[in-house]
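Practice problem: predict the structure.
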Amino acid sequence: MYGLYLKLGHARDEKDTLMLKSFFETNLPAVQHQQMSFYERIYLYQAYCWYYYILQDFVMYYRYTQKWVDLFSEYPNLKETDVDLYIKAMHNLLTAHFHTMNHDKFTEVLQVMEDFITEKEESLNENTRTNAFVYLYTGKINRHFLDGTFSEGLKLVAEVEEKISEHQLTVDQHRVLVFYYKIACLYFGSGDNDNAIIYLNKIIQLKIGNLRADIQCFARILHLIAHYELENYSLVEYLIKSVYHFIAKNKDLSLVMEEILKFLRKNMYANPRALRTAFRELKGKLEIIAKNPYERRSYLYRISSAGWRARSRASLCRRSYSRSSGTRCRGSRA
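Answer:
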């Protein structure tokens, strides 16, 4: 199931969904839960977790991540003997709380996981240390996305870079790709487009084939928007074509992407008043698209909704100010 996720990402259409359901149901064991051992139940819960995660059914994903964690409460000694499996369970539970926007539970679980890792740190082998770093710092960054505290989250960047270097022999390219994307989003959310572009370029330059093609596509969209924010219009014209080509090659041109690309192409040189109207029209179109269950995956790659709205308002203020002699918007960056 995890291999399917790395190749597919989230289900893109009914064809993906039918394929996934057929694969899952065909390979589902017939054994009853009460007859299963600890590890058999763990592996079953993991399979269900990835199944619902790919389908973007985050409520059911949460139920099975919680079952996974609760199983360690039934067998507490296994927290000591299989640290990797336990912190992986906590990481998935955090991911479930993140996608269901359950802030209080997220904070609570993150603290439990951090305390556990700190307590066991001296006894962990290299592979477990790497996993602990990935899970813990993914959680820390996601907390800033939930809070919309992007600038504060940038304090983690140096630590993440240091840890990636420290674990370069054991951390896989998929994890590095995700970290770079999250860091780029922190910079973008903070209004620092230049540094966002640096990390997005790191993703674009990674030689990873089709690994997480979904993130690669959205990284290019964000890269394009960051240059648009910097008013690098001649480059934006080239990038629009480049992004279209890359997305078409990966057969991943979602309706959200189409609308964003149309917006950028149409409003590249719009005056502030026209741009404000265009933003409202784009928002209306995206709200309609968001009702399509197969388009929800596009919204998983944006920064948190509250932060995104604040970022968009500040962006519009800065752009309006730069094109007119009016008063600077309240709350915009100097």
